[in-house]
Amino acid sequence: xxxxxxxxxxxxxxxxGQLNLLQQLYGSIIIPQAxxxxxxxxxxxxxxxxxxxxxxxxxxxxxxxRNLVTELQAELDEGESxxxxxxxxxxxxxxxxxxxxxxxxxxxxxxxxxxLLGVLLAAKRRGLIAAVKPVMxxxxxxxxxxxxxxxxxxxxxxxGE
Length: 161
Description:
- By secondary structure, the chain is mainly α.
- Helix content is 54%, strand content 10%.
- The protein is built from ten helices and five strands; from the N terminus they run βααβααβααβαβααα.
- The protein has helices spanning 7-15, 20-26, 33-40, 49-54, 66-72, 78-89, 100-108, 116-125, 133-140, 149-159; strands spanning 3-5, 29-32, 58-61, 94-96, 113-114.
- The protein has a three-stranded parallel sheet. A two-stranded parallel ribbon has the order 2-3.
- The longest helix is centred in the middle third of the chain and has 12 residues, at 78-89.
- The radius of gyration is 15 Å and the shape is globular.
- It starts with a strand and ends with a helix.
């Protein structure tokens, strides 16, 4: 299975100690160079920085179609643009992305997407986590991770919690 990831699924899962779920679900993931740079090219560490530099199951790959990246950057940041372009280039089975605009563009281009909450639902279905709620609550406690009340209820209902 070929799975591409944008920055936020990695950083958020790393922040709550659940990054291993990506390996357990998908075996390995591929990130474009821009996503690697967003995490490892900063003068300070963010959750996931060490992991993208050291874990063999997180692979970095260059995007070949720079024209597509440039076109996508009219609507998205560089990491999202490269993640979508790489997913198209590799005919990826899945793109892990949370940003609403990025999800919209990826879907419009025919890329199959899963957000972080979808990853948690898949992890629960496979018995990798006992419950979605504690992990989702930990994510919500992070600065910048927002979930509407409706989505929160929908995810818990889908998880049977």
